[in-house]
Design goal:
There is one protein chain. By secondary structure, the protein is mostly helical. About 55% of the residues lie in helices and about 0% in strands. The chain contains twelve helices and no strands. Helix 2 crosses helix 3. The longest helix is centred in the middle third of the chain and has 19 residues, at about 90-110.
Length: about 220
């Protein structure tokens, strides 16, 4: 039976995990292509339940047609829907993009705010999306939790929660502020490349001795 670690031991282990993952993935950064805050916001909204690869295939034409909040705020929903159809949930996303753009124009002078609480009030922007945008705009610090971060945090026994907001709270409590953004990116890269959902590549993992592998079957560990 694994001896339950103290809070200090868990925090030390969490810091070592992130340090090793950052060393393994020095190139880790947001995969969504963007050249300004508005494009970042749009891309993150589109990424909900969609791969970054697909979003990056869609956004060049979308940004060419609607390059700023003013243009998007005047868009017809059918045209936006057609441009983003392959991203999934395209009707809701098109509606959110137009409404969020109108809010930016009317309330913020077409500028994208970098405060998480303010961003979360925009149509189609939840807490996770707001955290991602704020973090990359050098605004409020955040440790946004997507499906990769949630899965790995639970597997590594850094949280006992499944709710993203509670997972984020646990990770923030374990790690110093300066590791939140690099930790977020490193966990996502690790989840995509090594710590896969069904068949984690434990034999290739740089944090293997630090990970209790919660929920990982013996057969998967031996692969």
């Amino acid at each position: 039976m694994r001896v339950r670690e103290t809070r200090r031991q868990q925090a030390d282990r969490a810091r070592e995990i992130i340090a090793r993952l950052c060393a393994r993935y020095p190139e880790a950064k947001i995969a969504l292509h963007h050249s300004n805050p508005f494009e970042l916001l749009v891309a993150v909204i589109l990424s909900a339940q969609c791969t970054d690869v697909r979003v990056n295939q869609v956004t060049p034409a979308l940004f060419a047609r609607f390059p700023d909040p003013e243009a998007m705020s005047r868009a017809g929903q059918p045209e936006v829907e057609e441009l983003i159809r392959s991203c999934g949930l395209y009707r809701n996303k098109a509606k959110a993009l137009i409404a969020a753009s109108r809010a930016l124009v009317e309330q913020f002078g077409s500028e994208v705010p970098n405060q998480r609480e303010v961003l979360a009030e925009l149509p189609g922007v939840g807490n996770k999306t707001a955290g991602v945008v704020a973090m990359h705009l050098e605004g409020d610090l955040a440790f946004p939790v997507d499906t990769h971060v949630a899965r790995l945090a639970w597997r590594m026994d850094l949280t006992r929660h499944t709710d993203p907001d509670k997972i984020e709270r646990d990770l923030k409590a374990l790690l110093p502020h300066e590791l939140w953004m690099p930790g977020h990116h490193a966990l996502i890269f690790h989840g995509r490349q090594t710590c896969l959902a069904r068949s984690p590549r434990c034999e290739l993992c740089p944090i293997d001795p630090l990970c209790p592998k919660r929920g990982v079957t013996s057969a998967a560990r031996r692969r």
